[in-house]
Amino acid sequence: MLAQQNTKWDKTVDVAVLGLGLAGAVGAITAHDAGVKVVVVEKQPADNHHTFSSMSGGSIMRPSTVEGGITYMEALCRVNDELSWTDSEVIRVWAEYAVENRDYVEKLGGKLRFMRRGAEHPELSGADLMEVWGYRGWGYRMMLFFGDQVKAREIEVLYSTPAKELITNLQGEVVGVLAEGKEGPIRIRATRGVLLCTGGFEFNEQMKLQYLRVYPSWFDGAGANTGDGIKMAMKIGADLWHMNCVSARFAAKFPEFPIPFKFDYGGKGWLYRQIHASDALEPAGFIFVDRYGRRFTRENIKLHGLYYELTAFDTHRLEYPRVPSYFIFDRKRMEEGPLAMTHSGPSGPHKLYVWSKDNRAELEKGWISEGRTVRELARKLGMSPGILDNTVRAWNKSCAQGKDARFGRSANQLVPIDSPPFYAIRLLPGGANTQGGPRRNSKAQIVDPDGEPIPGLYGAGECGSLYGMLYPVGGGNLAECIAFGRIAGENAAKERIKSI
């Protein structure tokens, strides 16, 4: 939308921040503390505000050194000697800011605990220099804290006010935003800049179909992320990057509930054991199988990259044989406690859904399939009884031998599936979030296809994340929200005032 000399502005500020997740909160706090007037424009209502950040596990990555962060990220993004997913200058400034993540949160008064050292891809240089810090109280408490920081500064937040369009002047500079308020359109003049912190496109079916590597894909955050900021930026000429990149593995989507679930597969803290490479024996056995009942991967998975294994397409059958896949387990896991994770996602602290302690309510809903024998379970899943039965028998034989010769599963996970009844949950590609969106430079400026900044437009968070195909480690996106929220807020606050 083009601004006119006679445009009637409903509100004038220095910086308008679109979206109140972690990136938006940090961007707003940073710009405000730099001495400029800020408004936050938030799509969700105040009494039902749950972002991807608040539904996350609250882990925040921090490189222990700047050089270590650069080394690891450059290795992660390198395709070959000439080609990288992300510009080296963007990686450098990310590392310079991300190394301060812990200090930044704690100086504000936030409470972090050290979780671990090491990254998701330990085979790459610099991986041993990555640290993960966890916010006490998970993502839920983390966002309550940052929301309080916004309130304490008396930064105005316009809830239930989705941004619709960026407003530019004749020179192509962003000078404001058109939003839809409770009583109609609102034109907000932003004299210095606009920060796009609107998240990804996890709940936009058409964008997922066109941009991601497999469809359907489901993500476990709130339903407000529909690619709004991406579309607004495209409309004024922004370049895009990382559009087919995700942080994801499996998700379980049930028709009766709008947000998918993720699971504590092995019971009693499976995710913790995965992250910390624990030697503790799994309390219950489980495997993943494709739609035909065959194992296809090592179940101690890379938590943010398994998704790409699910994208294999069979050109003869014209199908994705791993969509859907199935989580196969037995009575031992049913008796270990809730199958759904309770520290994040819809069954986490937000309590959008309270998963039953004995899993019986979900069994009655039909979310869990049950069979007295493996063959009976296979028939209920629509797969060959013989194939699934042979798969489970082969798994149990590996457990007895103490070695998974086919996929190399960790010894502590070699627990047989031998206690009837037997159960399954249908799984689809999905997980944490998309990464793609408007491309940004090292100053967090959104750029056009020639790499030239669009004046007055900045980006932070997963709306154009700097991460490419490979995700660095748990807490990577929250780390980026803090790092680039600060970068965007600082640079927008220093922008010259733009005329109409």
Describe the structure concisely.
Helix content is 26%, strand content 21%. With 500 residues, the chain is α/β, with parallel strands linked by helices.
Structure description:
The chain has 500 residues and is of the alpha/beta class. The protein has 2 domains: 11-245 and 435-493, FAD/NAD(P)-binding domain (3-Layer(bba) Sandwich), CATH 3.50.50; 248-431, Flavocytochrome C3, Chain A, domain 1 (Alpha-Beta Complex). The chain is built from 13 helices and 19 strands. The protein has helices at residues 22-33, 66-77, 88-98, 101-108, 138-152, 205-211, 228-235, 270-275, 331-334, 360-365, 374-381, 385-401, 476-493; strands at residues 11-18, 38-41, 59-63, 112-117, 130-135, 156-158, 163-168, 174-181, 184-196, 218-219, 240-241, 246-251, 286-289, 325-330, 369-371, 422-434, 437-438, 445-447, 453-459. Strands 1, 2, 6, 7, 8, 9, 18 and 19 form an 8-stranded mixed beta sheet that branches. Strands 10, 12, 13, 14, 15 and 16 form a 6-stranded mixed beta sheet that branches. Strands 3-5-4 form a 3-stranded antiparallel beta sheet. α2 packs antiparallel against α3 (88-98).
